[in-house]
Specification:
By secondary structure, the protein is of the alpha+beta class.
Length: 110
């Protein structure tokens, strides 16, 4: 994960903290792993967003903030959004994707 990626992730977190009940935020995927087969410019920045509640309005706000956070630097943020309940207690929170995020994700301190 590059310094720019981390800066964009932090910017995304700040935008979200002011608009949604944010519980957790983590980057994951090829940009975090720095896969040599994927150029930083060719890949989006995958980000886990955990919100206390999850409504269509929260999803819209997350999407808007993702666009705003990455726009100036040309980084497309692809958010994956869970409610706290889903992340901690549902089958989705135990999925291979969730296990991978827990293992390789770069979690921000909120």
């Amino acid at each position: 994960m590059t310094i720019l990626d981390h800066t964009v992730l932090e910017r995304f977190g700040v935008l979200l903290q002011h608009r949604v009940p944010l519980v957790g935020l983590a980057a994951f995927g090829s940009r975090v792993r720095s896969d040599s087969a994927v150029s930083d410019n060719d890949s989006d920045l995958d980000v886990l967003v955990i919100s206390e509640t999850l409504t269509p309005e929260v999803r819209r706000i997350v999407s808007d903030c993702a666009f705003e956070a990455g726009f100036d630097d040309g980084i497309l943020i692809s958010p994956v959004v869970y409610s706290r309940e889903e992340w901690e207690h549902s089958p989705e929170g135990l999925s291979p994707l969730a296990r991978s995020i827990r293992h390789e994700g770069v979690f921000l301190t909120l």
